[in-house]
Structure formats: structure tokens, C-alpha cells
Amino acid sequence: MATVNQMLHTYTMWAFLLLMIGGTATSTQANISAQQRLMGDLMQYYNRILRPVFNASTVTTLVYGLALMQVIDVDEKNLRISLSVWLRQEWTDEFLRWNPADYDGIEVIRWPASLIWTPDIVLYNNVNDDFPEPVPTNALIHYDGSINWNVPMIFKCYCNIISLDYPFDNQKCDIVFGSWTYDIKEIDLHGKGDSADLSVYLESGEWILNGAPVRREVKHFNCCDVSYVRLIMTVDITRKPMYFLLNMLLPNVIIAFITVWGFFLPPGSGERTSLFITTFLSLIVFQQLVVNSIPPTSDHTPLISRYLTLLTLMVGLSCCLTIIVLHLYHHSAHVRPVPDWLFNLTQYYLSPCLCMGRQNKRSKSNNDVKSSVDSQSYRTNRKICWRKRSYNIRREENYSGPGSDNEERVDEQPKLPKSPAKEKLDAILECIEYLCSIQSTKQKKNESLKDWVLVTSVIDRIILIIVILLLATSTVAFLSR
Questions:
Q1: Which of 178, 385, 434, 461 shows a CA-CA span of 20 to 30 A to 54?
Q2: Angle between helix 272-291 and 303-329 (nearest 10)
Q3: 3-state secondary structure of 408
């Protein structure tokens, strides 16, 4: 008896489990059948090639929205901009409508976009090798026929980069969308708002996004008799200049200021020209780095290129003027003395204005120095030669006269009897006079060289002031932009 009861209890449990499983399977089958039945009813006569309207004259209204995700890259050299965007498209498909009550209350279905008709919206100013293909995402289909299709995409399009104020430039890039085959009588394209959605935008380390307004434009092309609707999103961005200021501008300014400090080197050191040439070559290298990052156009010259060119010209001019100063500094008095007008201009007029002091009195003009030196040397040499000649004549002919009437006579000496002491004394006097003449000549030459040094110091100070003014003015003008 117990065995029979146990068997009945086992059969009852199995029967209950079978009923439970059967009820669940029946409910699931009912839901699947509703979705399958809905899909079968909608796709029975559906053709994804045809525009989804019952009447061909009906215009399909397409609402096109854009959410700007990120400014990936701005290629100034190739005039390109890369953007990450989310496309949000909304339209009505008259063939995809149903009554939710007939399909267990299903109001929204998610189908792959490849199964339904989608508008042929393309990026007009695309510069990628291939036109970007949308990601195969699902489209949300509502029971009233409205469709929402959101697609993430990366666009690479043309942008007219104006690098006039580089690196303080502001760029406005137009992103143009439109239907490739449907004109305004078939698809009426509208933007979703006056601006792109910036709520999901990720900040860039190089650019500041000022805005992304969207405008609608009806365009008539020469190829066709109909008009097409385009949407133009203008991406307004401003460059963050800190990177370029630290890595391009600051090194060039430091190099240019080294040129200023180079003028404090003494002209006689011989290192000033080498310093200026090294500075000149450094500026050329930095200028090549800037050239490689800007578009090769002749329509406008970037601000930083003009600034670097001015610095290069300034350093080159400083090098040329330094060579002139060194030439004057090492000028020899035997070649050309300092002209009076140049000495007076630099020492009596320019030197006080430059706070360099004033030369009170010039000992002699260089012309007077040269003439006095030449005449004195001539007289001394002739005097020595005459005395030697008179001494030889006196010894040979026992003649005590000073010389012939055709020669220039020296001071009359009293007639003395010949003695070795007198002969030695005359020779010593002649040597002393000769050494004095040589010393006088050297002194006059040194005074002339000193005049050249004074003149070159004033000219060097003038060049220094001009370089400082050019450097300060150009740098302030560059930074003020």
C-alpha cells in the first residue's frame, strides 16, 4: 500500500512539472509569434529600394541632427579636419505602420538599418579615400511609421585653413551634408535645431570649440534643373597657443636676445661675428620647423613666419654691421685717418646723446699729424745724412765748413779741433734725435688709432639701440595679436 501511494505521489509531481514547463513554453511562443508575425506582415510587400511613400508626390521630411563628439585632428598642411560625430536621422516610413493592439501591444521594434529604406545623405566635402560607410546599427521603428536612426561616424573633410594669425588663429570649417540623388521635391532636409548638440563633446588639448551652428541651404547646380537641400555645420574653433609659445616662440626670442647681448662683447675679442652667425643659423632651423606645419600657400603669410623672418633679417643685418664695426675698429692710421666731420659728429653730437661722455679736445687732426710726422721724419733723416756727409768730408779734406750753398744748411757749429770725444758726442746726439723722431711718429699713430676706437664705439652703440628697438617692437606687435 505504501508503495502504491509513493508511486502516485511521484506521478503527481511529474505531471505538475510538465504543466509548468508547458505553460511557460506556450507564453514564450505567443510572444515570439507576435514579433515574427509583425515582421512578416511588414516585410511581405516591403521594398527597401523605393522611397517609403504611397503617393509619389509626397515629400519625405528628413530631420538631420548632429552631435559633435570630438575634434580629432586639424591638418593645416593638407587643409583637412577630422571629426567624430553622432548622426541622428528621423523620417517617416509609410510602409512600416501597425496597430499595437494586433501584436500584443508592441509599439517599438529594432531592426538593422540594412533591412529598410535609408536616405542617401553624403558628406559633400569629403576628402577621405572612400566615402565613410555608416556603422551597421539598428534603427528604432515606431508603430506610427516614424524612424530614428543614430549612427556614430568619423568624418575627414576639407577645411579652408587661414593661417594668417598662426598660432593665434581662429578657424571656421564648413561640414556640408545633403542627399546625393533626391531633390527638394522628394526629400526636404531640415536640421534638428540651429546648432549641433555639444552635450557629449570632449575637450581637445589643442583647440577650443566656440560653437557649431547649423544652417539650411537650397542649392541649384548647373548640371540639373532641380534644387537640392544642404545642411552646413560650421565648426568654429580657436587654437590654444601655449604649446607653440613655449616650443617655437620662446626659443626664437631667446636666440634673438642673445644677439643683443653679443654687442656687449668687446670688438677686439673676435667672437662677436661667430656668435651672430650661429644665432642666424639657429633661427633658420626654427623657421623650417614652422614651415613644415603650415599650408604652403602664397595667399597670405602666417604671423609667426613674418616674425621669424624679421628676426632673421635683424640678426643678418647685425652680423653685417658688426663686420663694418670690426673693420673700423682695426683700421690702420697709415691707411686713412679719421675724417674731421666723422670725428666731430660722433664725439661732439652723438656721444652725449648716447650717454657715452664727450671728447673735450682733439690733440691734432689726423691730416696734421700725418704731415707733421712726414716732415719731421724727412728733416731728421736729412739732417742725419748731412752730418754724416760733413763728418766724412772733414776727415778726408780737413774741411770744417757746414756744406755747399745748394744744400739745406744745419745749425752752424763752432769750429773745434778734431777730437775723438767730439766725434762720439755728435754720433750720440744724432741717435737721440732719430729715436725721438721714431717715438713721436708712434705717438701720433696711436692717437689716430684711438680716434678710430672712439668712433667705432659710438657706431656700435647706435647699432645696439636699433637692434633693441626692432626686437622689442616686433615682439610686442606679435604678442598683441
A1: 178
A2: 170
A3: coil
Which class for 196: exposed (0-12), middle (13-18), buried (19 or more C-beta within 10 A)?
buried
Q: Is the pTM of this model over 0.70?
A: no
| Per-residue b or e along 259-296, where b marks 16 or more CB atoms closer than 10 Å to that residue's CB | beebbeeebeeeebeebbeebbebbeebbeebeebbbe
Cβ atoms of residues 237 and 74 within 8 Å: yes
| Beta strands in 143-199, from DSSP E residues, in sequence order | 146-158, 170-179, 187-191
Q: What is the pLDDT of residue 361?
A: 53
Cα dihedral value 217, 223, 226, 228, nearest 10: -30
425 vs 405: CA distance, rounded Å: 26
What's the residue count for the chain? 481
Asked whether 304 and 252 are in contact (CB, 8 A), the reply is: no
**Residues of the chain whose pLDDT is less than 50?**
1-5, 8-9, 11-31, 333, 365-413, 416
DSSP string computed for 46-85: --TTS-S-SSTTPPEEEEEEEEEEEEEEEETTTTEEEEEE
Alpha carbon distance 201, 432 (integer Å):
98
For residues 68 and 128, give the distance between their C-alpha atoms in angstroms, rounded to a whole number.
Answer: 19
Is the Cβ–Cβ distance between 50 and 117 less than 8 Å?
yes
Q: Which fold has domain 60-240?
A: Acetylcholine Binding Protein; Chain: A, (2.70.170)
Residue 335 confidence (pLDDT): 57
User: How far, in Å, CA of 346 to CA of 367, rounded?
Assistant: 18
Q: What is the reported pLDDT for 210?
A: 92
The residue ranges of every structural domain in the chain are 60-240
Q: Which amino acid is at 281?
A: L
